[in-house]
Structures are given as C-alpha cells and as structure tokens.
C-alpha cells in the first residue's frame, strides 16, 4: 500500500497524488457502513491494481480538520484577500470572512493586495487587525511585492483563499506558481464558466506538501450557521477577550450596562468599525433566529 493525498473527487472517483503519480481510485465499500466519506485533502493509504494502475482507498488517515463548506479535510488556514483599490477594501466583508474562518477553526491571515495603487489607508487597517492578533500581509501581485512572505505562510499547509471578486487572488497564485496560469481579470468569461459547470473541489499543488483550494473562497457568506446571538461574540477575537470583564457573563455588548467592550470602543482600544459590524451582524442573527 502507498500513501497519498486526495486532490480531487468526481462522481465516486478520487484522484490521489502519490509518489508514483496521481492515481484514480475508488473508495472501498466498507467506508459507507462506517459512515465515512473520503474528502479532498484526506491523507489516505491506497492499494494499487497493477493491471490498470487504478487504486482502492483502503484507509483514511487521521484528519487535522474538516471544513463543511466547501467539504475539504486538513485545511488549516485561510487567506482573506482584499485589494486596497479597485475594488476598495470592504471591512464589512472582511469581518464576515474572518467570522466564517474562526467558526471553522482556521488560522486566518489577511492579505491586502494591489498596494501599488494606494498605501495610505492600508497601514492603519493593518495595524487594527494585527492588534487583534491576525497576521497581515501586504502584497502587490503586479509589482511582485510580499510574494515571498505569502509563499512562506502557505508552505506545508492546505490553504483556502477567500475574498471578493477582482481583488487579485488568481494573480497572487499565478505569481507564486507560474505553472498555474489561472485566468485573471476577464471577469465576464470567468463568471460564464462558473455558471455552466458543476463546481467540484480541487487542490492545487503550489510546491511539495503545499496546496491551495481552487474554489475562490467559501461557498457562502451567510452567517446562518450561528445558532444563537450569544455565539457571535466568540468569532470576534477582541470582543471575546475583553467581554470577559463585562458586568454580566451573558453580556452581548449591545444595550447592557457596565459593558467593558463598549467602554473600550469609546477609548478606541477596540476598533469602532469592528464593533459596528459586530452589532450589525448581531441584528442579522437575531432576525433569522426569530423565524
Ligand atoms: N494594480 C494591480 N492590479 C492587480 C494586482 N493584482 C491583480 N490585479 C488586477 O486585478 C484584476 C483582477 O485580478 P484577479 O487575479 O483575476 O482577481 P481574483 O480575485 O482572482 O478575481 P475572481 O476570480 O473574480 O475572484 C486583474 O485585472 C489583475 O491584473 C495588483 O497587485 N496591482
Ligand atoms: Zn459587554
């Protein structure tokens, strides 16, 4: 038996990358009885059928993590890409991506791209998010800035790239591995393709033991996975941390008295923009939990 990693799954076939090349495999029937489904990203042991060089997945090795949307195993980090211009940084979206990452237990890294176009606002924002505890990386795919650092961050991980359309995700990946040749820029033709083909998850190998998910980000930006309003604060690192010193353990940092979070917003220790997003998302969670 040899070991490999599932890089693609289509209609009951799994493509497993092994030291002997990529092998088309089926999963052994017993997995179904055990209620186990092999996932893209899984490290597996396979048995190869010498006659036609196909294989059978015999064993799924222990998973470090499993993402629900998209369904992938062993993803450890997410890179949220925002461009400083064209389109402008959208912190409302950025915070949403971060929440989804926190929920899925991913180490989230923020990447501000297109810094060749503008720099002024970026450094303040970078500071805000670094203070919260996020790693922030400044890049320009156009001018080859920050690419080596990004490469270092990705090394030996399976990462997912997230971010709005047009911020330069494909351009960054192409810079890291020129073999990629992902389509960039041609938004109209790209979205056409998106509509007419079924999306499946696939891992791209950037270098040895280093993969990225092909799907541009998470499949949905909805916060409907949040079951109660009290859960939201867990996904804002600084609110979670400072909220421990509120008067009420159950404080939602909204209208409650003696709220440490609100006090620190006033003292500009917690970013007001982040707090405002928190309140907006809280309303959203309340709304769909009412129905
Ligand atoms: N000035 C500048 N333009 C960039 C940079 N990175 C990407 N672009 C341009 O921005 C446009 C969009 O880049 P893409 O790489 O296609 O963006 P994307 O995030 O992959 O977009 P989607 O695939 O729609 O999600 C292209 O025209 C790129 O040439 C950069 O660092 N600076
Ligand atoms: Zn509070």
From TrEMBL:
Alphabetized GO MF terms: GTP binding; GTPase activity; metal ion binding; rRNA binding
Top EC class for this record: hydrolase
Alphabetical list of InterPro entries matching this protein: G_CP_dom, NA-bd_OB-fold, P-loop_NTPase, Ribosome_biogen_GTPase_RsgA, RsgA_GTPase_dom, RsgA_N
Pfam hit, one: RsgA_N
Cofactor (UniProt): Zn(2+)
Residues of the CP-type G domain: 64-221
Protein EC: 3.6.1.-
Binding residues annotated for Zn(2+), in chain numbering: 246, 251, 253, 259
EngC GTPase domain location: 73-219
Origin: domain of life: Bacteria
Cofactor note as given: Binds 1 zinc ion per subunit.
Residues that hold GTP according to the record: 113-116, 163-171
One example of a Gene Ontology biological process annotation: ribosomal small subunit biogenesis
Keywords: Cytoplasm, GTP-binding, Hydrolase, Metal-binding, Nucleotide-binding, Ribosome biogenesis, RNA-binding, rRNA-binding, Zinc
Compartments, as annotated in UniProt: Cytoplasm
NCBIfam families: ribosome small subunit-dependent GTPase A
Role played: One of several proteins that assist in the late maturation steps of the functional core of the 30S ribosomal subunit. Helps release RbfA from mature subunits. May play a role in the assembly of ribosomal proteins into the subunit. Circularly permuted GTPase that catalyzes slow GTP hydrolysis, GTPase activity is stimulated by the 30S ribosomal subunit.
Family indicated by similarity: Belongs to the TRAFAC class YlqF/YawG GTPase family. RsgA subfamily.
Protein name per Swiss-Prot or TrEMBL: Small ribosomal subunit biogenesis GTPase RsgA
